[in-house]
Fold:
Amino acid sequence: MAGALLASLLSEPVPAGREHLAAALLRDGLPGARDEAWKYTNLRALEQRSYAVGDAQAATRAIDLDALLVPIESCARLVFVNGVFRHDLSNVQLVTGLQIGRSVDDGRGESAPTDGDLSGARSAAFSRLNAVLATDGPQVTVLDGATIAQPLLLIFVGVAADADLAWNVLARFDLGAGASLKVIEHHVAASPNAHLGNLVVNHALGAGAHLDLVQLQEAAPAATLIRRTTCRLEDTAVLSMHTVETGAQLMRHDLVVDLVGRGARFESRGVFALQGRQHADTHMVVTHDARDTACDIVWRGVADQRSRGVFHGAITVAPGADGSDAKLSNKNLLLSPNAEIDTQPVLEIYADEVKAAHGATVGQLDERALFYLRSRGMPLDLARRILVGAFCGAVLAEIRPTALRAHIDTLLAARLPQAETGE
Structure:
């Protein structure tokens, strides 16, 4: 049965055509420990909370956006404040080959998930919730053969409101055949709010398309952020993704990548850096559905104090996907005896002539490396910071432009956990 969360969010009549999804939500409730995909993330406390739905004043709330922006030149900027699009803060330029519209019409768009997508599993509760309640979000289309030179910024800002609120946004990116685009998805806080954000972003890459996606998550320390990113790649399409997770009290990110076209390639580099009582759960599912596809996944995690990190990386090579090349590596550091990281690399192979490898480690800083730096006169705190920074930075070296990489380095330098260790 549904707790206070779903009861408060679905207390008002839902739009026509979505009643069955709302009814399924209220019947099934949120996923629990018996749902395999959520076994390491306890939602009981969240389920008993209540939120206001949407922010009626979001369009007029004052924000110093310059203090929040990533310092890079962009071709367009789309800003959402508490889940509401702010045209006055956005910069929607007319760029040849790039079209920007809305993914949701009158509260529900054709791109909203269908009953077949969502009605069968309780683990899809937040996707169902998004399908019922999303009232805003961008529809970005890159025309066939178009190369968009400058990045597109997609910014989600959390600000204080009269009460803790929940927002739902549905976004869609369609890249035509041979198209190229760089997207920077940035989650940032202008106040220490405790809102619930629920974001679904669907990416479709046509044959030969190239998407460079950077996801930078530094939401408010008290916030809850649930995200689902889906990507579908046609023949020879390439998706390059860099993800940095440092914010939110509770964070869950589902990454679903389907390599449906021959020669499609997915490359993922990611870092989560946690402290306090933060909980971050990254759940990645990659499916090779065609011949000669490839994925190369390298993630690093750091947890300090009483934080907990979860990484689930599942790769499936479907029947007939011969020639696939799948690699996954997940290395993690614990900087406190009270911190915890759970990692689950999974390979399922149903095809011949496949190259596949996976590995995961959870450990502590190398005492020999610490001793070496200390023997050179370096203070312990500085030695630890250098080693942890190098551990995380190894997977972020390819981020461009340089100003964006510098911003991420500064963010990590300020937030990287430091264990409470004496001299």
Summary: The first strand starts at residue 52 and ends at 53. The longest helix spans residues 380-393. Residues 106-116, 417-423 have pLDDT under 50 and may be disordered.
